[in-house]
Each structure stands twice: as C-alpha cells, then as structure tokens.
Specification:
- The protein is of the alpha+beta class.
- About 15% of the residues lie in helices and about 20% in strands.
- It has helices at about 45-50, 60-65, and strands at about 10-15, 20-25, 35.
Amino acid sequence: MKKDTHPDYHIVNVVMTDGTTFQTKSTWGKEGDTINLDIDPTSHPAWTGGNQHLLDRGGRVSRFKDKFKGFA
C-alpha cells in the first residue's frame, strides 16, 4: 500500500444545535477543532417526525396538488 495517501484521522469536538457537545474522529479540520452543526438529529424533521410545515406560495407543490386533486 502507498504511504501518505490517506488523510489525517483525528479527534474533533462537535457542538449540536442544543449546545451539547461530543468528540468524534474525523478527517475534517485539525486535531481539537470544533464543528458547529446547523442541523442535527435533534432538530431535523427527518429524525423528529416532520413537525415542520412546507411553505409553498404557488410553486411546484401547489401545481402538483392542483393537478392530482381528484385522484385520491
């Protein structure tokens, strides 16, 4: 195997949206750097059950609903 082909794998700090932190190994940044998450499993609708509503002002969703309104 060739030497120096793999990136440096080190420990970084991760700060979630609610302020909790944990450490994990990553190739991002340098040893001890901090990753501040904008979206994480505690705030993203894919993991929380989709409490967020879709905002559409006459766009694709509205056209789709109009096109198939009598189908169901």
